[in-house]
Each structure stands twice: as C-alpha cells, then as structure tokens.
Write a structure and sequence with these properties.
The complex is a heterodimer of chains A (about 270) and B (about 300). By secondary structure, chain A is of the alpha/beta class. Chain A has helices spanning about 30-45, 95-110, 140-145, 165-175, 195-210, 215-235, 235-245, 255-270; strands spanning about 5-10, 20-25, 45-50, 65, 70, 75-80, 85-90, 115-120, 120-125, 135-140, 150-155, 155-160, 180-185. In chain A, strand 6 and strand 7 form a beta hairpin. The termini of chain A are far apart. By secondary structure, chain B is α/β, with parallel strands linked by helices. In chain B, a hairpin with a 2-residue loop joins strand 4 (about 55-60) and strand 5. Classes of the chains: A alpha/beta (about 270), B alpha/beta (about 300). Strand 12 (about 155-160) of chain A pairs antiparallel with strand 4 of chain B, so a sheet runs across the interface.
C-alpha cells in the first residue's frame, strides 16, 4: 500500500463541510450513484481528489461489464457554494479499515468536514406504488435530535454491517456526527433504478442543506416507470396479482418474488 | 496496527499457550478450556480492525450502538511454579477467501502475539491444533507434536499419549504442513528465538471436513497440558459436549455399509499406512450440513 493514499488534483475549497458518501458497489436501486451524480451535476461539483486504488482493490486482471472495462474508482468532489464534499466509490476489497479511515482523513484534514451522510438503498417488500420511507441510523444522540421533523424512521437491526455502518462507526470514534440514510427500494427495482427513492433522498438533502434543487425531472421518471409497470400489469395477470398482494401488505412466496423481479427487470431493460 | 495492554503484571519467564479456530476446533477448545480452568485474567488484546471486517452491527431505535469484531485477546495467570500467558484468537486473518490464516496479515498477527510474549520475557510457546490421521473415531486420540528444536524431544517423550509427528503411520519421513496460524506462529517464534511446540490432537481423516468440533481430541491435548504444568484437571465438564458429538458421529458410522465398516474397523487393531477408499467413502456419509466451506487447513498427511 502506498504511504499517501490520496491523489489531490485541486486544493479543496471547503470549510466546515458536510461529507456525503455513496457506494457504487451493490448499489441497490442505483441510489448512491444517481444521488451523488445529480448533486455533482446540479451543484457544480468539481473533482478534487481520489483515493489511490492500490492495496484496496485486486489487480490480478480487469473486470468488465457490458463489454466495458471497469476500473475501481474512489473520488471526491467539492460543491463549493453549498459546502458539500461528495465521495463516491466502489467498495474496497482489502483493508477496509484503512480505506474508510482514509476517507475520513481527507474529509477532516483537507475539507474540515463536520458531518457525515451515507447513502444506500435497502431492499423492501413495499410495492412501487406505495410511499417509501427513509430508514435512518445515526451515530450520535444529538444529531438524532436535530434530524427530527425530516420524516426519517429509526432503524433497529442486528447483523452483518454494510460498509456505510462501518464508516459511520469510525466517524463516531472520531467524534464526527453522521447518519446513514437507507431509503426503501421495492425488491423488484433493486437491480434497476428507483427514481422514487432517489427523489425522496434528494428531497431530504435539499431540505437539510437548503440546496434549491429542482426535482421535477424525477417526477417524469417516476411517471414513466409507473406507466410501464402498469402496462405490464394489464398484460400479465400473474404480475398484477403479485403487485396487488404487495400493495395489500401481503408477502410473496420466494418463487413469486423471483418471477416478479425477473419480469420487471426485463421490462425496464428494454427501455434502458 | 496495535496491541492494547490493560495491565502490566510482573511475570517470570512465562510460557505461552496460543489457540485459533481450526479443524475440529481442537486447539482453541484446548487452550480456551485451560485458560478457563486456571481462571486466567484479561491482559490485553490485538486491535482487531486492522485484521478483520466487523461481523455484527447493533442498531437500536435509529442509534448505532456498536460494531463487533472477532476478538484476539491475551490473558495471564501466575501458578506456583510457572507464569502463563494465553492468547485466544476468535478468527484467523486470511487473504483470498481462505478459511485459515495466510498471507501478510497472518504473519503480522503472529508477530504481534510474540511481541507481547517477548515483552514479558516468554521463552516458550505452545500452539495446538488437529492432526488428521487414520485413526478410528472410537479410539483415544493421541497427541502429535511438532517442535522447533531437537532438544525438546526428550521432554516430549515424557508425556503420556504423546508422539512426535514422524512416529505416526502413513507418512513419508514425517513431512507435512501445519496450515494456518497454529503453524505459522511456530515459524515466527523460531525465527525470533522462542521455543515452539505444536500439540495436535488426532482426528479421523473423514471427519476433518465436518463443521462440528471434536472435543475428544481436545481432551487428549488438555491432558498433556496438565502434565506440562504439573497440575490436576477435572475435565468432566467436557463429557456432555463429547457425548453429543459422539452421538452424531456414531449416527453417521451406523450408516456405513458392512464392507466399509469392516475395512474402517481394522483401524482399531492395525495401524493403517494409507487412507484407502474408506476416507472418500466415509466423507460421503457426512451430511452436507456438517461440511465446512473453504480450504481444509490444519495439519494433514502428505
């Protein structure tokens, strides 16, 4: 592993910033990627640094997906006007502790980050027509108080930690208050996009940081996706029944879940 | 990458007992049981986050309460004649998805364990593990030893039910590998001038891939530990666990076809030199739910 894990392109122009982290590995509903991408696009995020991949990712060859070579990326963007530091990365394969500490080192040392927000979808058995919730995990009781009124729901869970929970824990040790946002994603949209969850997450950030973002374009995406699934329901009685069951709060059997996920995947794949 | 010591007791040339999980968890059961019987006190720990991904997060009512890592802890006890340090690692650091310790991380951990030992003046370390052999499961497992120096042979010969690994049947000149940290620690100890002995309880070859523990062999190792320390130990509390495991094994054994059982039962009377077909066939009788994933690790015949 290299001694200095960062490559800094530009002196970060941030002070007392908030760090927003999205992961593009196992990115349920493409939430982490889409939210950070939208923020960078609309807030003029400038690429300022990256964590060098050596030591954190395997280099025994190269991955490819859809004919394209995939290179692990771990980049920081600065949205100067809004004082946001955005970090988007593949999940490291090795040395998680050092990698996550490097993220916080950069955020603290170069951008004086004071708060952490992590983004990630959580697979849910809600129907896509139902309202989504954002489940929240917070690392300090004081922050929990200041997040009241945003409509976040408290998560209770014990089990293997996601990388965001690990980062949140390391932030807690350093005294950085942070929250992991886990918007619900219907399981059959988990491998596609969920514009409803993306919009909900952006709405929270919009309000929290007073960003003035226009989220109208997501309404179009939501309408378009809902219409396509509605068409599928009209054409396929079985799929309609499954979604109706979910809408009534009923669980599906495993084979029914698979069938629904497969059909919706195929449907949405056609439209890109 | 650090060591955290909770206290610094004055210990005189302590000997160290070290255990990590492995085949049949023989070594870790033996070392952990010895530590518990002697009521050893906590001494310190190796900070786990450099070696392991956390295994559990606890979130309650929206608050992140804790993250739980596999522990790597030191304990100590002063006996009348000997001071002791124990190290118990709940997991072996691995690379490349292997089950038992390997690579740079394992090497670093072995060195950290020895750093603590040397810091207290330790000159000898015992590790423990499994010796996969052609034993019948109804026989008392022997304890097979690998040592860091020939001068230790004479001492080992004194202990009951203990043999050098070269004395076990079915081997070519006593060569083999002790996979994982129970083995690697001996290498690092030798390099750093510390005497090392690995005491391995025999486990039947066909049970080496099973996911359940093999306490019979741990008992054999514990009996040798008691001799080494010159103490009496009441191991009756192992009876219950042994009984439960015996029941599972006997259940599998009962399903062996007559011909196979006959061949296998010869192990009771004639030392076997080759595994023969029994090893492969008998493994089939271990239900899938008792099989482990990953590599096999441990000490194996070559």
């Amino acid at each position: 592993m290299e001694k200095d894990p960062f490559e800094i392109y530009k002196t970060p122009p941030l002070q007392n910033s908030s760090l927003i982290v999205g992961w593009q590995t196992r990115d349920i509903g493409k939430l982490g990627y889409k939210v950070t991408d939208f923020l960078n696009e609309k807030l003029g995020g400038q690429e300022i640094a990256e964590i060098k991949p050596l030591g954190f990712f395997p280099f025994g060859g190269v991955r490819f997906r859809d004919d394209l070579v995939q290179v692990p990326e771990s980049k920081f963007w600065a949205c100067e006007k809004n004082n946001l530091l955005i970090f988007r990365s593949d999940e490291p394969v090795f040395e998680h502790y050092q990698f996550l500490n490097s993220v916080l080192d950069f955020a603290e040392s170069y951008c004086n980050a004071k708060e952490l927000y992590t983004l990630g979808g959580v697979v849910s058995f809600v129907a896509h027509t139902s309202p989504r919730r954002i489940l929240a995990v917070i690392n300090k009781a004081e922050l929990k108080k200041s997040l009241q009124g945003y409509g976040l729901e408290n998560m209770t869970w014990e089990g293997p930690p996601a990388i965001s929970s690990y980062l949140l824990w390391l932030a807690k040790i350093r005294g950085i208050p942070g929250v992991s946002l886990w918007p619900e994603i219907p399981f059959y949209l988990a491998t596609r996009e969920d514009p409803e969850a993306i919009k909900l997450t952006l709405s929270f950030l919009n309000r929290r940081f007073d960003l003035g973002l226009d989220l109208e374009r997501f309404n179009l995406d939501i309408r378009d996706q809902n219409e396509r699934i509605a068409q599928l329901r009209r054409e396929d009685a079985e799929i309609n029944q499954y979604i109706s069951q979910l809408e009534s709060g009923l669980r599906l059997k495993e084979e029914e879940q698979l069938k629904l996920a497969e059909e919706v995947y195929k449907l949405l794949e056609k439209g890109g | 990458m650090g060591i955290k010591l909770y206290r610094k007791p004055k210990l005189e040339k302590p000997i160290m007992f070290v255990g990590w999980p492995g085949i049949g968890n023989i070594g870790i059961i033996a070392v952990n049981t010895l530590k518990d019987i002697l009521k050893a006190e906590q001494l310190g720990e190796i900070e786990s986050w450099d070696f392991f991904y956390p295994r559990k997060v606890s979130i309650r009512d929206g608050l992140l309460e804790d993250l739980d890592f596999p522990s790597s802890k030191f304990y100590y006890q002063r006996l009348e004649k000997k001071d002791l340090i124990f190290f118990i690692g709940e997991e072996q650091p691995t690379e490349g998805g292997r089950m038992y310790g390997s690579g740079e991380k394992a090497y670093q951990m072995a060195n950290l364990v020895l750093d603590v030992g040397l810091n207290f003046g330790c000159q000898r370390v015992y590790t423990s593990g499994a010796c996969v052999s052609l034993i019948h499961h109804q026989m008392k497992p022997r304890v097979c030893a690998v040592i860091s120096s020939e001068v230790l042979i004479k001492e080992l010969k004194k202990y009951q039910n203990t043999i050098l690994i070269s004395e076990i049947g079915g081997r070519r000149g006593g060569e083999g590998t002790i996979t994982g940290l129970n083995g690697l620690l001996l290498a690092v100890a030798k390099k750093r001038g510390v005497e090392g002995i690995c005491l391995m309880g025999e486990i039947p070859d066909w049970l080496s891939g099973a996911s359940f523990p093999y306490p019979r062999a741990a008992r054999s190792v514990l009996e040798v530990f008691a001799e080494i320390l010159g103490i009496g130990m009441d191991l009756s509390f192992l009876n219950k666990m042994e009984g439960q495991i015996e029941e599972i094994i006997e259940g599998i054994y009962a399903k062996f076809p007559a011909e196979m059982k006959e061949e296998y039962d010869r192990r009771k009377f004639i030392p076997q030199a080759k595994p023969g077909t029994i090893t492969i066939q008998a493994q089939i009788y271990i239900d899938e739910r008792f099989k482990k994933g990953g590599d096999e690790g441990g000490e194996r015949p070559i």
